[in-house]
Backbone:
């Protein structure tokens, strides 16, 4: 795992402005296994944040999208992560629309891209499995096992 931190310092913000103030200095800190301080940047995490905001209304700025319960927020995030890793095909920069394997395919845990139907089926089967396990645990407690 490589980990670095980029600390950005800004001028005093103008009152009433939504845009960020001008950056005056950036300090890069190598936390773990970063080969060059020049490779520490915010572009990867900012792109990931944009993807999350695009897929999940709850994370957009200045909007009324929210979750009434923490469980609903967790479920939405879990569904997004599963869809992104198993169904969504990433596009590589400069490949003119050429589709690449999903992240799950890239690391070798899946051989083909999942359809949304397969994702829903897998989640439903897992929820049914969890319900069976919950009932079995309750029965075991009742029987003193």
Residues:
């Amino acid at each position: 795992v490589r980990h670095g931190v980029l600390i950005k310092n800004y001028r005093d913000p103008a009152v009433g402005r939504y845009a960020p103030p001008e950056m005056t200095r950036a300090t890069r800190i190598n936390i773990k296994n970063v080969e060059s301080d020049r490779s520490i940047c915010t572009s990867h995490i900012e792109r990931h944040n944009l993807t999350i905001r695009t897929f999940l209304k709850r994370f957009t700025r200045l909007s009324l999208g929210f979750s009434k319960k923490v469980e609903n927020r967790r479920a939405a995030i879990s569904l997004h992560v599963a869809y992104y890793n198993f169904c969504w095909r990433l596009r590589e920069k400069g490949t003119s629309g050429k589709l690449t394997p999903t992240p799950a395919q890239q690391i070798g845990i899946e051989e083909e891209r999942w359809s949304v139907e397969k994702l829903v089926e897998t989640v439903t089967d897992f929820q049914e499995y969890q319900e069976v396990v919950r009932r079995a645990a309750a029965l075991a407690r009742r029987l003193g096992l």
Summary: Residues 115-145 form one domain. The chain has three domains: 1-41, 56-114, 115-145. The chain has a mean pLDDT of 86. The CA atoms of residues 94 and 100 lie 12 Å apart.
